[in-house]
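User: Here's a protein and a ligand (adenosine-5'-diphosphate). What would the complex look like?
Assistant: Let me lay out the input and then the predicted complex.
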Amino acid sequence: MIILVINSGSSSLKYQVRDGDDVLAEGLVERIGEAEVPDHAAALDRVDGEVSAALGDRGIDAVGHRVVHGGERFSEPVLIDNEITRAIERLNPLAPLHNPAAVTGIRAITDKWPDMPQVAVFDTAFHRTLPEHAWRYAVPDELYRKFGIRRYGFHGTSHAFVARGAAELLGADTFTGVIAHLGNGASVTAVRDGESVDTSMGFTPLEGLVMGTRSGDIDPSILLFLLREGYTEQDLDTLLNRNSGLKGLAGTNDMRSVTEAADAGDHRAQRAIDVASYRLAKYVGGYHVAVGGAQALVFTAGIGENAAAFRTAVVGKLGALGLELDEARNGERSREARIISTEASAFPVLVVPTDEEAAIAEATAAVVGASQPAA
Ligand code: ADP
Protein backbone atom coordinates (compact mmCIF):
# COMPACT_ATOMS: atom_id res chain seq x y z
CA MET A 1 0.00 0.00 0.00
CA ILE A 2 1.46 3.37 -1.00
CA ILE A 3 1.02 5.85 1.83
CA LEU A 4 1.50 9.61 1.78
CA VAL A 5 2.50 10.75 5.29
CA ILE A 6 1.69 14.40 5.98
CA ASN A 7 2.89 16.64 8.79
CA SER A 8 1.10 19.98 8.38
CA GLY A 9 2.42 23.06 10.12
CA SER A 10 0.79 26.47 9.98
CA SER A 11 3.24 27.60 7.28
CA SER A 12 4.87 24.35 6.19
CA LEU A 13 3.96 20.90 4.94
CA LYS A 14 6.35 18.00 5.37
CA TYR A 15 5.63 14.81 3.48
CA GLN A 16 6.95 11.35 2.79
CA VAL A 17 5.65 8.67 0.44
CA ARG A 18 6.27 5.10 1.59
CA ASP A 19 5.60 1.60 0.45
CA GLY A 20 6.34 -0.40 3.59
CA ASP A 21 9.98 0.29 4.47
CA ASP A 22 10.73 1.91 1.09
CA VAL A 23 10.73 5.71 1.01
CA LEU A 24 9.63 6.63 -2.53
CA ALA A 25 9.61 10.41 -2.14
CA GLU A 26 9.89 13.03 0.55
CA GLY A 27 10.01 16.78 0.83
CA LEU A 28 9.06 19.96 2.57
CA VAL A 29 6.98 22.87 1.29
CA GLU A 30 7.71 26.01 3.28
CA ARG A 31 6.42 29.57 3.45
CA ILE A 32 2.78 28.62 2.92
CA GLY A 33 0.75 31.83 2.99
CA GLU A 34 3.29 33.81 0.96
CA ALA A 35 2.93 34.72 -2.72
CA GLU A 36 4.29 31.51 -4.28
CA VAL A 37 2.35 29.11 -2.09
CA PRO A 38 -0.77 31.03 -1.00
CA ASP A 39 -2.41 28.20 0.98
CA HIS A 40 -2.31 24.51 1.90
CA ALA A 41 -4.19 23.60 -1.29
CA ALA A 42 -1.37 25.17 -3.33
CA ALA A 43 1.18 23.34 -1.17
CA LEU A 44 -0.63 20.09 -1.85
CA ASP A 45 -0.61 20.74 -5.61
CA ARG A 46 3.13 21.09 -5.34
CA VAL A 47 3.42 17.86 -3.34
CA ASP A 48 1.19 16.13 -5.91
CA GLY A 49 3.52 17.25 -8.71
CA GLU A 50 6.63 16.00 -6.91
CA VAL A 51 4.97 12.73 -5.86
CA SER A 52 3.52 12.01 -9.32
CA ALA A 53 6.96 12.49 -10.86
CA ALA A 54 8.42 10.00 -8.37
CA LEU A 55 5.62 7.40 -8.59
CA GLY A 56 5.09 7.32 -12.37
CA ASP A 57 1.87 5.42 -13.09
CA ARG A 58 1.44 4.21 -9.50
CA GLY A 59 -0.85 6.18 -7.23
CA ILE A 60 -1.26 6.97 -3.56
CA ASP A 61 -3.58 4.53 -1.75
CA ALA A 62 -4.04 6.42 1.52
CA VAL A 63 -2.88 9.45 3.48
CA GLY A 64 -1.68 9.38 7.10
CA HIS A 65 -1.68 12.63 9.07
CA ARG A 66 0.41 13.43 12.11
CA VAL A 67 -2.00 15.13 14.52
CA VAL A 68 -0.49 16.59 17.67
CA HIS A 69 -3.51 16.56 19.98
CA GLY A 70 -6.08 13.81 20.29
CA GLY A 71 -7.38 14.98 23.68
CA GLU A 72 -9.07 12.36 25.82
CA ARG A 73 -11.01 10.87 22.95
CA PHE A 74 -8.37 9.36 20.69
CA SER A 75 -6.34 6.46 21.99
CA GLU A 76 -5.63 4.96 18.57
CA PRO A 77 -5.20 6.01 14.96
CA VAL A 78 -8.58 6.52 13.26
CA LEU A 79 -10.04 6.64 9.78
CA ILE A 80 -10.98 10.26 9.12
CA ASP A 81 -14.48 11.39 8.20
CA ASN A 82 -16.23 14.75 8.68
CA GLU A 83 -17.10 14.01 12.28
CA ILE A 84 -13.50 13.07 13.13
CA THR A 85 -12.20 16.21 11.43
CA ARG A 86 -14.59 18.31 13.51
CA ALA A 87 -13.52 16.46 16.66
CA ILE A 88 -9.86 17.30 15.92
CA GLU A 89 -10.92 20.89 15.28
CA ARG A 90 -12.70 21.03 18.67
CA LEU A 91 -9.32 20.26 20.26
CA ASN A 92 -7.78 23.40 18.71
CA PRO A 93 -7.72 25.30 22.03
CA LEU A 94 -5.47 22.58 23.49
CA ALA A 95 -2.96 22.80 20.62
CA PRO A 96 -3.53 26.23 19.07
CA LEU A 97 -0.53 26.08 16.76
CA HIS A 98 -0.72 22.46 15.63
CA ASN A 99 -4.26 21.13 15.38
CA PRO A 100 -5.63 23.90 13.12
CA ALA A 101 -2.80 23.15 10.67
CA ALA A 102 -3.61 19.44 10.70
CA VAL A 103 -7.28 20.17 10.03
CA THR A 104 -6.31 22.46 7.15
CA GLY A 105 -4.17 19.65 5.71
CA ILE A 106 -6.98 17.10 6.05
CA ARG A 107 -9.52 19.39 4.35
CA ALA A 108 -7.08 20.19 1.52
CA ILE A 109 -6.75 16.45 0.81
CA THR A 110 -10.54 15.94 1.03
CA ASP A 111 -11.08 18.72 -1.50
CA LYS A 112 -8.44 17.45 -3.88
CA TRP A 113 -9.08 13.69 -3.57
CA PRO A 114 -12.58 13.21 -2.09
CA ASP A 115 -12.35 9.40 -2.10
CA MET A 116 -8.87 9.11 -0.60
CA PRO A 117 -8.84 7.19 2.72
CA GLN A 118 -7.20 9.37 5.37
CA VAL A 119 -6.01 8.34 8.82
CA ALA A 120 -5.16 10.56 11.81
CA VAL A 121 -2.27 9.40 14.01
CA PHE A 122 -2.14 11.28 17.31
CA ASP A 123 0.94 12.32 19.29
CA THR A 124 -1.02 11.97 22.52
CA ALA A 125 -2.66 8.58 21.85
CA PHE A 126 0.04 6.31 23.31
CA HIS A 127 -0.31 8.13 26.65
CA ARG A 128 -4.04 7.42 27.03
CA THR A 129 -3.02 4.53 29.31
CA LEU A 130 -1.57 6.88 31.96
CA PRO A 131 -3.11 6.10 35.35
CA GLU A 132 -4.97 8.99 36.96
CA HIS A 133 -2.33 9.52 39.65
CA ALA A 134 0.10 10.31 36.81
CA TRP A 135 -2.16 12.50 34.66
CA ARG A 136 -3.80 14.56 37.44
CA TYR A 137 -2.32 17.87 38.48
CA ALA A 138 -2.82 18.80 42.13
CA VAL A 139 -5.23 21.64 41.39
CA PRO A 140 -8.99 21.93 41.92
CA ASP A 141 -11.03 19.49 39.83
CA GLU A 142 -12.82 22.40 38.20
CA LEU A 143 -9.76 23.11 36.03
CA TYR A 144 -9.97 19.60 34.61
CA ARG A 145 -13.75 19.66 34.12
CA LYS A 146 -13.92 23.17 32.68
CA PHE A 147 -10.74 23.34 30.59
CA GLY A 148 -9.46 19.77 30.28
CA ILE A 149 -6.33 20.70 32.23
CA ARG A 150 -4.43 17.44 32.82
CA ARG A 151 -1.30 15.71 31.59
CA TYR A 152 -1.72 14.51 27.99
CA GLY A 153 1.87 13.78 26.98
CA PHE A 154 3.28 14.00 23.44
CA HIS A 155 5.80 12.25 21.12
CA GLY A 156 3.59 9.18 21.61
CA THR A 157 4.03 7.85 18.08
CA SER A 158 7.78 7.85 18.58
CA HIS A 159 7.70 6.38 22.10
CA ALA A 160 5.39 3.56 20.94
CA PHE A 161 7.56 2.81 17.89
CA VAL A 162 10.74 2.78 19.99
CA ALA A 163 9.12 0.62 22.70
CA ARG A 164 8.37 -2.00 20.04
CA GLY A 165 11.91 -1.73 18.65
CA ALA A 166 13.44 -2.08 22.13
CA ALA A 167 11.33 -5.16 22.92
CA GLU A 168 12.48 -6.70 19.65
CA LEU A 169 16.15 -5.96 20.36
CA LEU A 170 15.82 -7.45 23.85
CA GLY A 171 13.89 -10.47 22.60
CA ALA A 172 11.00 -9.60 24.94
CA ASP A 173 7.26 -9.80 24.18
CA THR A 174 6.66 -6.30 25.52
CA PHE A 175 8.87 -3.48 26.75
CA THR A 176 9.20 -2.34 30.35
CA GLY A 177 11.59 0.55 30.88
CA VAL A 178 12.35 4.20 30.26
CA ILE A 179 12.53 5.87 26.83
CA ALA A 180 14.20 9.25 26.34
CA HIS A 181 13.18 10.93 23.07
CA LEU A 182 15.72 13.76 22.75
CA GLY A 183 15.23 15.93 19.67
CA ASN A 184 14.56 19.66 19.55
CA GLY A 185 11.59 18.79 21.68
CA ALA A 186 12.41 16.21 24.33
CA SER A 187 10.38 13.91 26.52
CA VAL A 188 10.88 10.82 28.61
CA THR A 189 8.29 8.08 29.03
CA ALA A 190 7.84 5.30 31.58
CA VAL A 191 6.62 2.17 29.79
CA ARG A 192 5.30 -0.87 31.61
CA ASP A 193 4.41 -4.00 29.63
CA GLY A 194 4.28 -1.93 26.46
CA GLU A 195 1.96 0.75 27.92
CA SER A 196 2.81 4.35 28.79
CA VAL A 197 2.38 4.84 32.56
CA ASP A 198 4.00 8.27 32.88
CA THR A 199 5.56 10.89 30.63
CA SER A 200 7.36 14.16 31.16
CA MET A 201 5.42 16.41 28.78
CA GLY A 202 2.13 17.52 30.26
CA PHE A 203 -0.84 19.72 29.34
CA THR A 204 1.44 21.08 26.61
CA PRO A 205 4.85 20.01 25.27
CA LEU A 206 6.54 22.58 27.54
CA GLU A 207 6.78 20.51 30.72
CA GLY A 208 9.62 18.19 31.66
CA LEU A 209 13.10 18.01 30.20
CA VAL A 210 15.43 20.83 29.18
CA MET A 211 14.81 21.12 25.41
CA GLY A 212 16.34 22.99 22.48
CA THR A 213 14.45 26.21 23.17
CA ARG A 214 11.96 25.20 25.90
CA SER A 215 12.58 25.44 29.62
CA GLY A 216 10.87 22.24 30.72
CA ASP A 217 9.98 22.13 34.43
CA ILE A 218 9.96 25.48 36.16
CA ASP A 219 8.39 26.85 39.35
CA PRO A 220 5.03 28.26 38.14
CA SER A 221 5.42 31.15 40.57
CA ILE A 222 8.20 32.48 38.35
CA LEU A 223 5.49 33.28 35.78
CA LEU A 224 3.41 35.12 38.39
CA PHE A 225 6.50 37.00 39.49
CA LEU A 226 7.30 38.03 35.90
CA LEU A 227 3.67 39.05 35.25
CA ARG A 228 3.94 41.39 38.23
CA GLU A 229 7.20 42.68 36.76
CA GLY A 230 5.32 43.68 33.58
CA TYR A 231 5.86 40.70 31.29
CA THR A 232 2.89 40.02 28.99
CA GLU A 233 1.41 36.64 28.15
CA GLN A 234 3.17 36.82 24.78
CA ASP A 235 6.50 37.65 26.47
CA LEU A 236 6.18 34.59 28.70
CA ASP A 237 5.24 32.33 25.80
CA THR A 238 8.27 33.50 23.82
CA LEU A 239 10.53 33.29 26.84
CA LEU A 240 9.66 29.72 27.82
CA ASN A 241 8.99 28.18 24.39
CA ARG A 242 11.56 29.92 22.20
CA ASN A 243 14.34 31.45 24.26
CA SER A 244 14.92 28.95 27.06
CA GLY A 245 16.35 25.44 27.25
CA LEU A 246 19.77 24.92 25.66
CA LYS A 247 19.35 28.24 23.85
CA GLY A 248 18.70 30.11 27.08
CA LEU A 249 21.56 28.42 28.89
CA ALA A 250 24.18 28.21 26.14
CA GLY A 251 23.05 30.64 23.44
CA THR A 252 22.24 27.93 20.86
CA ASN A 253 19.56 25.23 20.65
CA ASP A 254 21.74 22.91 18.58
CA MET A 255 23.30 20.14 20.67
CA ARG A 256 26.17 19.72 18.22
CA SER A 257 27.22 23.34 18.74
CA VAL A 258 26.70 23.07 22.50
CA THR A 259 28.91 19.97 22.69
CA GLU A 260 31.63 21.52 20.52
CA ALA A 261 31.61 24.70 22.59
CA ALA A 262 31.80 22.73 25.85
CA ASP A 263 34.75 20.72 24.49
CA ALA A 264 36.46 24.01 23.64
CA GLY A 265 36.10 25.15 27.25
CA ASP A 266 32.92 27.26 27.07
CA HIS A 267 31.50 27.24 30.60
CA ARG A 268 27.94 28.19 29.60
CA ALA A 269 27.81 25.28 27.18
CA GLN A 270 29.13 22.89 29.82
CA ARG A 271 26.56 24.20 32.28
CA ALA A 272 23.77 23.60 29.73
CA ILE A 273 24.87 19.97 29.36
CA ASP A 274 25.07 19.60 33.15
CA VAL A 275 21.57 21.00 33.71
CA ALA A 276 19.97 19.02 30.86
CA SER A 277 21.64 15.70 31.73
CA TYR A 278 20.88 16.10 35.44
CA ARG A 279 17.20 16.81 34.71
CA LEU A 280 16.96 13.72 32.52
CA ALA A 281 18.81 11.53 35.04
CA LYS A 282 16.32 12.58 37.76
CA TYR A 283 13.42 11.56 35.51
CA VAL A 284 15.04 8.22 34.72
CA GLY A 285 15.38 7.53 38.45
CA GLY A 286 11.73 8.45 39.01
CA TYR A 287 10.46 6.40 36.09
CA HIS A 288 12.55 3.40 37.13
CA VAL A 289 10.28 3.47 40.18
CA ALA A 290 7.15 4.17 38.09
CA VAL A 291 7.58 1.03 35.95
CA GLY A 292 8.42 -1.17 38.95
CA GLY A 293 12.05 -1.66 37.89
CA ALA A 294 13.16 -0.83 34.36
CA GLN A 295 14.48 -3.58 32.13
CA ALA A 296 16.27 -1.03 29.93
CA LEU A 297 16.95 2.66 29.37
CA VAL A 298 16.54 3.71 25.74
CA PHE A 299 17.85 6.79 23.94
CA THR A 300 16.27 8.00 20.69
CA ALA A 301 15.84 10.99 18.29
CA GLY A 302 18.55 13.42 17.09
CA ILE A 303 20.38 13.88 20.38
CA GLY A 304 19.55 10.46 21.83
CA GLU A 305 20.79 8.66 18.71
CA ASN A 306 23.86 10.78 17.95
CA ALA A 307 25.15 12.69 20.96
CA ALA A 308 27.39 10.08 22.62
CA ALA A 309 28.83 12.66 25.02
CA PHE A 310 25.37 13.61 26.23
CA ARG A 311 24.48 9.95 26.82
CA THR A 312 27.69 9.64 28.84
CA ALA A 313 26.71 12.69 30.91
CA VAL A 314 23.27 11.19 31.67
CA VAL A 315 24.32 7.64 32.44
CA GLY A 316 27.24 8.95 34.50
CA LYS A 317 24.64 10.37 36.90
CA LEU A 318 22.83 7.03 37.18
CA GLY A 319 25.51 5.08 39.02
CA ALA A 320 23.04 4.61 41.90
CA LEU A 321 20.93 2.45 39.56
CA GLY A 322 23.99 0.37 38.65
CA LEU A 323 24.14 1.58 35.05
CA GLU A 324 27.43 1.52 33.18
CA LEU A 325 28.12 2.49 29.57
CA ASP A 326 30.57 0.66 27.35
CA GLU A 327 32.33 3.75 25.98
CA ALA A 328 33.55 1.95 22.86
CA ARG A 329 30.00 0.87 21.98
CA ASN A 330 28.62 4.25 22.98
CA GLY A 331 31.07 5.99 20.64
CA GLU A 332 30.28 3.84 17.60
CA ARG A 333 28.19 5.59 14.97
CA SER A 334 25.41 3.43 13.61
CA ARG A 335 21.82 3.68 12.41
CA GLU A 336 20.94 0.31 13.92
CA ALA A 337 19.23 -0.41 17.24
CA ARG A 338 21.99 -1.43 19.63
CA ILE A 339 23.11 -2.00 23.22
CA ILE A 340 25.68 0.52 24.50
CA SER A 341 26.12 -0.64 28.13
CA THR A 342 28.60 -3.10 29.62
CA GLU A 343 27.73 -6.65 30.62
CA ALA A 344 28.05 -5.49 34.24
CA SER A 345 25.38 -2.78 33.88
CA ALA A 346 22.36 -3.50 36.14
CA PHE A 347 20.14 -3.29 33.05
CA PRO A 348 20.99 -2.53 29.45
CA VAL A 349 21.19 0.95 27.94
CA LEU A 350 20.03 1.02 24.32
CA VAL A 351 19.97 3.30 21.32
CA VAL A 352 16.88 2.64 19.19
CA PRO A 353 16.46 5.00 16.21
CA THR A 354 12.98 6.44 15.90
CA ASP A 355 11.08 6.86 12.64
CA GLU A 356 7.79 8.68 13.08
CA GLU A 357 6.97 8.60 9.36
CA ALA A 358 7.39 4.81 9.28
CA ALA A 359 5.16 4.49 12.34
CA ILE A 360 2.47 6.75 10.84
CA ALA A 361 2.58 4.90 7.51
CA GLU A 362 2.35 1.54 9.27
CA ALA A 363 -0.62 2.69 11.38
CA THR A 364 -2.32 4.17 8.32
CA ALA A 365 -1.96 0.96 6.32
CA ALA A 366 -3.33 -1.06 9.26
CA VAL A 367 -6.39 1.18 9.78
CA VAL A 368 -7.18 1.37 6.06
CA GLY A 369 -6.63 -2.38 5.65
CA ALA A 370 -9.01 -3.14 8.53
CA SER A 371 -11.66 -0.76 7.16
CA GLN A 372 -11.81 -2.30 3.71
CA PRO A 373 -13.83 -5.46 3.17
CA ALA A 374 -11.60 -8.33 2.06
CA ALA A 375 -11.69 -8.70 -1.72
P1 ADP B 1 13.31 17.32 15.83
O1 ADP B 1 12.69 17.33 17.18
O2 ADP B 1 13.32 18.65 15.17
O3 ADP B 1 12.87 16.18 14.94
P2 ADP B 1 15.85 15.86 15.90
O4 ADP B 1 15.32 14.59 16.43
O5 ADP B 1 16.30 15.91 14.49
O6 ADP B 1 14.85 17.08 16.15
O7 ADP B 1 17.06 16.31 16.87
C1 ADP B 1 17.71 17.53 16.69
C2 ADP B 1 18.83 17.63 17.72
O8 ADP B 1 19.74 16.55 17.53
C3 ADP B 1 19.64 18.91 17.61
O9 ADP B 1 19.91 19.43 18.90
C4 ADP B 1 20.94 18.42 16.98
O10 ADP B 1 22.03 19.24 17.33
C5 ADP B 1 21.06 17.06 17.61
N1 ADP B 1 22.03 16.23 16.88
C6 ADP B 1 21.92 15.68 15.66
N2 ADP B 1 23.07 15.05 15.31
C7 ADP B 1 23.93 15.19 16.36
C8 ADP B 1 25.27 14.77 16.64
N3 ADP B 1 25.98 14.06 15.75
N4 ADP B 1 25.81 15.12 17.83
C9 ADP B 1 25.12 15.84 18.72
N5 ADP B 1 23.85 16.26 18.52
C10 ADP B 1 23.26 15.94 17.36
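Summary: The domain at 172-356 is CATH 3.30.420.40 (Nucleotidyltransferase; domain 5).
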